[in-house]
Structures are given as C-alpha cells and as structure tokens.
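Regression test case RT-17, inverse folding.

Input:
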C-alpha cells in the first residue's frame, strides 16, 4: 500500500492548527506498519503550490518520517489550490521515478478546511482519495465529489483531528481493503427502501446527513437489475415516496435524486403508520417492487414514535420485509427498535451517537452493507423467539390473529377480527334497534330483550 498525505497549509489554516495537523500525521504514521516491504508513505503540503515534504524514495521507516514531519515548516499562502494539488498527485506522486510502486493500491488522505480556489479534476480511479474535511469552512459537497466512490471523513474542528481522525484513518486504510471496490456482496435481487425521518424533530443539517448516508450506500453497493434497487420514503405526519423503484436504477441518477430531496417537516413522527404504508403500498409491484427480490427497509429513527409499531412490525415480518432500524442520538425508544426487528433478528439494530456517524458507517467498512445483504431470517419464529415447525399454528398476544408455519419456513397470518360496522344489523323482534357489543377482536350486534 502506497499512502500519500497531502495537508493544507494556507493562511486560512494558521500555524497553531498546522501544528495540530503535524501531530495528527505523527499519530497515524505511528499506528501504521511502515516498512520497505509494507506501507510506504509520502507527505506533501499545499496552498498556492505543492511542497513535497517526504517522498516515497526516502527511507521508509516510521522514525525517519516522523522526524521529518515534526520539522515541516508552515507554508502559508493566500490560495487553497486543491485542484493543482490533486493534479500534482495524478501526474507525479505514484510514478516509478518518484518511488511509487505499480503493483500496490494507491491511497491519498487530504486534510483540508477551506473550499478550493481553483478548478478540481478528480484523479483517476486507480488513486483512491479520502479527504478529511474540517468544518465549518470545508466544502463538504466538493470533498464528496473528490472522494467518490469512497466518502470523506468530516470533522467539526482541528482538535478532533487528533482525538478522532487517527483511528478513523487507520481503520479505513489498514483494517480492510477500502481502496478496492466493495465486492458483489449482494449477488441476488434485493429491493432496499430507506425511511428518512422528515418530522419537526429533525434539523436541516441532520436531514442532510441522512441523505449523505443514502448516497454513500448507493455509491458503495452494486446497483443493477440482478442486485440492489434503491427507493426512499420520507415519513412524519404524512408518508412521501420520494424515489420509487420505478425510476432508472443507475448510481449517478439515484445520487442526483437523493440530493434534490427536501425536508417536509410535517409534524410528529408516526413510524408505525409509515412502516404499514411501506409494506402495504410503497413496496408493491406498481411502485417497481420486483416479485423475485428480497425486501429490506432501512429505518432511521431519532425519536419516539407517537403511534404504536407492533402491528406494523408484525405485518412487515409476515410479508417478508426485513426491517433494519438505525437509532440515532438518545431520544428514540429502544423497545420500539426491538419491536421492529422482532426477537429473532435483534442483531439488525444499529445504534449511533450522531447523524454524522451514518455516512461513516458506510465509509469505514462494508459490514453494514454485508449485514443488509445477508439472507433474511428464513425460520418460523413466534413472538417469544421460539422456533416453529411446518404445520405449527399459534395465536398472537392480541388473541385476534393466528399464524401458521408452512413447509419452506414461511408464515401466513390469519386475522379473526370482526368489524360489525360492515355487517348488516339484525332486525330485532322487539322492534328495538340492535345494540353493538364490543369484544376482544372487534364487535357484534345483539338484540335487546
């Protein structure tokens, strides 16, 4: 693995923050297996121009590189010519004459906190760029374009560069082959729907992070007719199918459509109603659902649902829709998440501290996509988590539904609810009107004495 670090050294950064960047480089390089037969490192600084601080041709040992990093002078400069820096990398950095190896993956980490002051041309796909953007001034959309098909690491301040970034970099570069495309994990048709919370509980930046997560998934997974199709539903007071499976299932087209989704902020969170709408309506063939495809709903939850989710979760299970709830923050109800998955699939639940962690979950490794692509549970399991055999029949806790397990481990739900409002009222001999009697599973009419 050949790794290039290119760090911004413009006037916008300042010497104090530049020294933090140097400490970050020291920590990351300390954690890497640097050596002649292992990882090779080069370090550059850029602003108006590019300065090569340590090349691949120099001794590839941690001690030598760290000693040089500590002595790098802060360059300064009025411009942040990111385009020029990336052009330099494309044309020079990984070439044989500059010590690059042709038979290893090429990875670039670019630390930047300013929008580019020149035009950017993304390096060839053989060079994987992972920008580390520091807000509030970094242009996240610009960094996202540079990094495709990977994703940038976004931090909130230079101080978090030392606290959080070294581990993120080491995980992404050295714990798996991020620089190669995620293999065809989903080698079967799978219809995936994302449910985004558009309620008034969600801020504008949080909604953008949810969209970034969907885009990251689309860019990392294999979108094709033999694999994954993606749709998006926004839920709150009303349910809005923003993207259906009927639209062209092409990566660039889907990313563009996700980008244009606007938050509707329609009142409270009604998750039960949203899932019911998804199962009964949005996942139908009329909306592009493929009869042969597994159905998956990835549900982002940040608050407690104002309606119940039990019946909707049950309906999803009975209709073979696998629910993957992602709880973000600390306001959601864990019990509701467990209800969504059912006792047999609680490992589908993901819990994150911040909305920013959504994209990182895709950026760092392929575990989440693997989890989604694994065959959904194909066993008959009752509400207490007990396995059932074909021919077994059991009654649900509401006493109004029975479930039967059939060969092939699929279940059929039978309702015993009676809506007497739809039945004709009896004509009573006493000439008195029939009286409605409420019962556990509905109602019935009875003539008064």
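Golden output:
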């Amino acid at each position: 693995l050949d790794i290039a670090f290119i760090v911004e050294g413009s006037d916008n950064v300042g010497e104090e923050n530049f020294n933090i960047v140097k400490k970050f480089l020291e920590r990351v390089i300390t954690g890497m297996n640097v050596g002649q037969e292992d990882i090779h490192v080069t370090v550059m600084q850029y602003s108006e121009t590019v300065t090569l601080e340590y090349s691949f041709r120099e001794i590839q040992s941690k001690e030598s590189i760290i000693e040089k990093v500590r002595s790098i002078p802060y360059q300064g400069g009025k411009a942040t010519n990111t385009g020029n820096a990336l052009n330099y990398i494309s044309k020079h950095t990984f070439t044989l004459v500059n010590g690059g190896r042709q038979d290893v993956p090429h990875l670039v980490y670019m630390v930047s906190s300013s929008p580019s002051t020149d035009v950017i041309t993304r390096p060839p796909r053989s060079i994987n760029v992972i920008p580390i953007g520091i807000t509030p001034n970094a242009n996240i959309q610009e960094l996202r374009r540079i990094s495709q098909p990977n994703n940038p690491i976004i931090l909130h301040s230079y101080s978090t560069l030392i606290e959080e970034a070294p581990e993120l970099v080491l995980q992404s570069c050295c714990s798996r082959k991020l620089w190669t495309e995620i293999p065809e994990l989903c080698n079967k048709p799978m219809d995936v729907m994302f449910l985004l919370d558009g309620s008034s509980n969600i801020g504008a930046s949080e909604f953008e992070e949810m969209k970034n997560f969907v885009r990251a998934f689309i860019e990392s997974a294999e979108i094709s007719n033999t694999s994954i199709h993606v749709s998006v539903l926004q839920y709150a007071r009303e349910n809005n199918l923003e993207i259906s499976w009927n639209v062209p299932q092409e990566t660039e087209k889907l990313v563009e459509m996700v980008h244009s989704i606007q938050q509707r902020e329609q009142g409270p969170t009604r998750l039960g109603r949203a899932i019911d709408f998804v199962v009964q309506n949005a996942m139908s063939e009329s909306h592009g659902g493929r009869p042969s495809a597994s159905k998956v709903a990835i549900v982002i939850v940040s608050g407690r649902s104002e309606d119940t989710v039990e019946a909707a979760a049950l309906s999803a299970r009975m209709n073979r829709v696998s629910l993957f709830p992602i709880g973000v923050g600390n306001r959601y109800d864990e019990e509701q998440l467990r209800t969504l998955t059912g006792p047999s699939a609680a490992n589908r639940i993901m819990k994150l501290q911040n909305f920013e962690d959504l994209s990182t979950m895709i950026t760092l490794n392929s575990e989440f996509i693997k989890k989604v692509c694994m065959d959904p549970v194909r066993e008959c399991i009752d509400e207490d988590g007990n396995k059932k055999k074909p021919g077994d029949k059991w009654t649900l806790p509401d006493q109004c539904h029975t479930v039967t397990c059939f060969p092939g481990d699929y279940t059929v739900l039978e309702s015993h609810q009676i809506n007497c409002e739809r039945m004709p009222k009896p004509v009573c001999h006493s000439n008195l009107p029939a009286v409605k009697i409420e019962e556990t599973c509905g109602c019935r009419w009875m003539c008064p004495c």
